[in-house]
Amino acid sequence: MISTQFLVTALVVVLAPGTGVLYTLAIGLGRGRRAAAWAALGCTLGILPHLAAAILGLAALLHTSALAFTMLKWAGVAYLLYLASQALRSGGALALEEDRTAEEGWRTARRGTLINVLNPKLSIFFLALLPPFLSGDPATATAEMIGLGAVFMALTFAVFLLYGAFAALARDRLLASRRAMTWLNRTFAAAFAALAGRLALERA
């Protein structure tokens, strides 16, 4: 059974601003509600590999393997710096163009997925978050972790949709001022670069 304590803890974690939230906000402001929904979906799907790693015990291996952690970490750093550069380009990944086709939407979702997949701390996070809320019965531990993970993902998707919708509401006013959008893109670029720097300093 999903406890209220878990729901509150998961909601607080999901609401906390992070790379996925920043990406969803950037897409919502630049491309509108539909594109933000794709971004939210991608960020949510990016949780799956880390959840699986936690369930299978691979997160513990990642935590103890400096090489594996470092390789995944630097891949994440490189991708965040790529997004920072794209925010500064008029035709980049964060360009102010709506996703008109499903293919464009999936491209937006894939970028969101990569953001979370390339964050090695997520696997370790799940390894620390889920066990305290298990019943303690080894026979049901895997099923319980899957259930808790599914609830966490559902909360992530719902909250990110709200973030994206909020950003989309502000979009029309901001688009009226190209100067405002230029500075907003620079702000997102700086934020992605700062997150890359923070990830670079992380240790297993």
Automatic annotation (TrEMBL):
Top-level taxonomic group: Bacteria
Subcellular location: Cell membrane
ATP-binding in keyword set: no
Molecular-function GO terms, alphabetical: homoserine transmembrane transporter activity
Membrane topology type: Multi-pass membrane protein
Chain segments annotated as transmembrane: 6-26, 38-60, 66-84, 114-134, 146-171, 183-201
Transmembrane listed as a keyword: yes
InterPro entries on file: LeuE-type (IPR001123)
Chief place where the protein resides: membrane
Keywords: Cell membrane, Membrane, Transmembrane, Transmembrane helix
One CC-aspect GO term: plasma membrane
Similarity comment: family membership: Belongs to the Rht family.
Protein name: LysE family translocator
Species this protein is from: Histidinibacterium aquaticum
